[in-house]
Amino acid sequence: MSNAYIVGWGHTPFGKFDNLDLEQLIRDAVQPALASAGLEPKDIDGIFVGHFNAGFVNQDFTAALPAVAMPEFRHTPAVRCENACATGSAAIWAALDAMAAGRMKRTLVIGMERMNGLSTPEVAATLIKCSYVKEEGSDPAGFAGIFGGIAGKYFERFGDQSDALAAIAAKNHSNGMHNPYAHMKRDLGFDFCRNPSDKNPFVSGPLKRSDCSLVSDGAAALVLSTEPLPGAKVPAVRWRSRTQVNDFLPLSKRDPTRFEGMAMAWQRGLADANVNLDDLAFLETHDCFTVAELLTYEAMGLADHGKGARVILDGVTTKSGKLPVNPSGGLKSKGHPIGATGVSQHVMAAMQLADQAGGMQIANARVGAVFNMGGASVANYLSVLESV
What we know:
There is one protein chain. By secondary structure, this protein is α/β, with parallel strands linked by helices. Helices cover 34% and strands 17% of the residues. The strands form two sheets. A nine-stranded mixed beta sheet has the order 3-2-4-7-1-8-11-10-9. The protein is globular. The protein starts with a strand and ends with a strand.
């Protein structure tokens, strides 16, 4: 059991915002986070910024931006973390490590990304840097090409999984209708997601546009503490366990249809938390592409290798199913501003466990999980969280 608590949170809408700079994103996420924790900037011992960037904006050294956005942070220690699409979780882990070491008692974690200043080809060229560039960096589809290749190999080995991928996309878009922060609040339906069309063309391999997460701008923030705060305006949420497991970066060194690092993270994380899958009320997971959610079902133990389709087709992971997955809409509907994603997922989980998730709420949610990954299941982060 951990002595680390989420005691406040903030979240901006995700979307495409032409005139929104990083400083404004920081203010819009941090101010409600501090208010919900009942704290002021002077009460924060350290700031941990998750920002992938890699060329999305010209400004680097973005750990210094919170003090530009909010001058009260002028002398507060701040550091930036980057770990591909798990950048947000890397920042959370760094804050938790500082607290566990006794250096800090209250920390602020900010995840943010401004992606839409680049053209679609430039976005693809930026994201492909999260692959093993020597072997995989020439794919013109960018990271969609990486996961399109993974999906293609899975289809070759286990048959056409298009029904399952469409069901995952339709589920997450239906869930996202109830998320006030979601980039795309549109219930696309199974038929649209299943059938290629002018509005839903193939992007790479068997993946269509509806199988791919959105290019989004946005930010999220968490206030963490070594103890619950009596002045907080929201109920505290505690970590039961947190786990990070890495795997090889080059897909050529592993079976691309089996996310082994992810599976190891689940095994360790559940054991450390002293829970099993039946104890979880929900999961917020990293559906950057629908095939990633499909492979997650297998890695976490809901299905054997090659059998993940039955999980979604039998309704197990729908909002009314045995284990709701991505009640927030996931990356598919909510959006995927790279550095913000891991922090956003933890905000969504905290809202569930605090019984403050509105239309997204899962009844009687007391224990839940967050899974966030960098690359094609290279950096694997799992949080098991509980209400206090």
